[in-house]
Design goal:
binds magnesium ion; 18 strands; 2 domains; TIM Barrel; about 375 residues; 8-stranded parallel β-sheet; 4-stranded antiparallel β-sheet; globular; alpha/beta; about 20% strand; Enolase-like, domain 1
């Protein structure tokens, strides 16, 4: 099979519940998502999606996706998309860095591999572990009472794991943790995500003030060494996210015992191929994972569900249903929240059919 053409589409995805606010005043009301369609000489079409959480979360932004695709996509024409490792190597040779640009192309090639094999990606990625994948819900930064109210609201549709966004004034953060912690019921789990914004002295102060509240701590500080210093001062379960952006960083963090859980976001690391590699390393090292992505809609959620469902249950901390955060569907057949869980499709490839009317005409056509 050979790639004969690639089209790039842009879709605005309005966020539900008024958007997302997280540390240091960052917020977003609408996702700017990019979808690629890869056409082949076999008549099969593969799909991928990538959606940064705005320009100030990770070193990625929506305009950069499209500029990068214009540079990179022409190099893929004529290559076999089912050779996902060869494609990944080629992309690394033709564009240094910018893993988020590669993520959508990688995803579309994996989709084509599944379509060609007649198998769902969950099978190609190791097979289906358990009935479904547990989801968590991120709680946008707000007043402590409003955040506790959100937890009650999302509990109604099945979520039992909640990640609250903190990282502003430490005193307010202490109150947020106390109020949301008190709102939890038996069997529920709280993660406190500072999204890189505390300095170590602030993290130490907050942690000391809420020692009696059970929660996992996520990415307290911006730097790796700062996070290590906070970890050395707390016995809390520790999650790293933003600063683990590939295999080398993961290996170092495992060697340093820097975390108990790592968040593997497909676009942060370059797509399904690298995320699978990191997944396998984490399984071998006993590091639990949140398998997810930074944003997006049905296509991203489908890719996340396949990799997460193909990961041993004991190593899955949680996953995210990105489609559950937006008001717009771009494809049929993708997974959805089913009482706090989601399942990978049994249909070949990603198991999705794009809504072409929503994708609209391509911004860019490469053939
Ligand atoms: Mg995080």
């Amino acid at each position: 099979m050979k790639i004969t053409g690639i089209t790039v589409h842009q879709v605005d995805l309005p966020l539900r519940a008024g958007g997302m606010r997280w540390s240091t005043g960052r917020s977003l009301a609408t996702y700017d998502s990019t979808v690629v369609r890869i056409t082949t000489d076999a008549g099969l079409v593969g799909h991928g999606e990538v959606c940064p959480l705005g320009p100030a979360y990770l070193p990625a932004y929506a305009g950069g996706v499209r500029a990068g695709l214009a540079k990179l996509a022409p190099h893929l024409i004529g290559h076999d998309p089912t050779e996902t490792g060869v494609i990944a190597r080629l992309m690394d040779e033709r564009l240094k860095g910018h893993p988020y640009v590669k993520s959508a192309l990688d995803m579309a090639c994996w989709d084509l591999l599944g379509l060609a094999a007649g198998l769902p990606l969950v099978t190609l990625l190791g097979g289906r572990h358990g009935r479904a994948v547990k989801l968590y819900r991120a709680i946008s930064q707000d007043t402590p009472a409003a955040m506790a109210e959100r937890i009650a609201q999302w509990r109604e549709v099945g979520y039992r794991q909640f990640q609250i966004k903190v990282g502003s004034d430490p005193d307010l953060d202490i109150e947020r943790i106390r109020t949301t912690g008190a709102a939890l019921r038996a069997g529920e789990l709280l993660v406190v995500d500072a999204n890189t914004s505390w300095l170590p002295h602030q993290a130490a102060r907050v942690l000391r003030a809420v020692e009696d509240v059970p929660f996992h701590l996520e990415q307290p500080c911006a730097g790796y060494d700062e996070c290590l210093s906070v970890r050395a001062r707390t016995g809390r379960a520790f999650v790293l996210d933003e600063i683990i952006d590939g295999v080398p960083g993961l290996l170092r963090a495992i060697a340093d015992r820097a975390m108990d859980v790592v968040n593997i976001k497909l676009s942060k690391v370059g797509g399904i191929g690298v995320a699978r590699q990191m997944r396998d390393i984490c399984v071998a090292a006993g590091i639990a994972m949140t398998i997810e992505d930074s944003g997006g809609s049905d296509i991203v959620t489908a890719a996340v569900a396949h990799l997460a469902h193909a990961t041993p249950e004991a190593l899955r901390f949680s996953s995210s249903d990105n489609i559950g955060y937006v008001d717009r569907s771009i494809a049929e057949g993708g997974p959805h929240n089913e009482d706090g869980w989601m399942r990978a499709s049994s249909a070949p490839g990603l198991g999705i059919a794009p809504r072409l009317d929503v994708l609209g005409p391509p911004l860019l056509t490469i053939d």
